[in-house]
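It would be a great kindness if you could assist me with a short task in structural biology. I am sending you one protein, given as its amino acid sequence and as whole-number tokens for its backbone shapes. I would ask you to consider whether the tokens describe a fold that such a sequence might reasonably adopt. The full record is reproduced below for your convenience.
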Amino acid sequence: VQFVESGGDLVQPGGSLRLSCAASGFKFSGYAMCWFRQAPGKEREVVACINFPGSLSDYIGPVKGRFTISRDNAKNTMYLQMNNLQPEDTAVYYCNAGWGMTTTNNGRFDSWGQGTQVAVSS
């Protein structure tokens, strides 16, 4: 199992980014997928999840209305469109299979990618 995250950058508050997650080593289309993030000095937390057909998604409260999760099962790739970014969104973003917006969701697979750094600062 392998995840490769990309698309992170340094942006100003109010800016936008689109993250990508390329997955391999498992049947991508058969799993719900999630984005996670880890801010400096904090535990990793789930941010958003999407079911395996891509018809249902869920988000943590602070990102609702600003972030949109999507997936392309033909490309084994998941995306996170992030709009109106705020300094509190600064973190390393990771992807993994899984479902749920609580701390019980620690990712379906033990293997994690290197993550992609998002920094929001003026």
